[in-house]
Design brief:
This protein is mainly alpha-helical and about 80 residues long. The protein contains three helices and two strands; from the N terminus they run H-E-H-E-H.
Length: about 80
């Protein structure tokens, strides 16, 4: 239901599943897509909408955090920027 709400609010073409959830593969993605399709308002569900697993799998969260930290440090002119 939460993913259907995200689809209704943001009308994305894709939702990327990362972290530990991405290791569940089709066991997670197929039911999630089915529920989103059932509960999303039709104009909010683009024909090309899809769920995909993050390429970095369970490492996507830590790597994204590191990237964000490096960007913030650069913007602030910190050491090593």
């Amino acid at each position: 239901m939460g993913l259907a709400n995200l689809v209704n609010i943001f009308n994305p073409e894709m939702i990327v599943i990362g972290g530990g959830l991405s290791n569940m593969g089709d066991r997670l993605l197929k039911p999630a897509y089915r529920v989103a399709e059932e509960r999303a308002v039709p104009p909010s569900l683009p024909k090309r909408f899809r769920f995909v697993r993050a390429a970095l799998g369970r490492n996507s969260g830590p790597r994204g955090s590191r990237f964000g930290f490096d960007e913030m440090k650069r913007d602030l002119g910190g050491p090593g920027a």
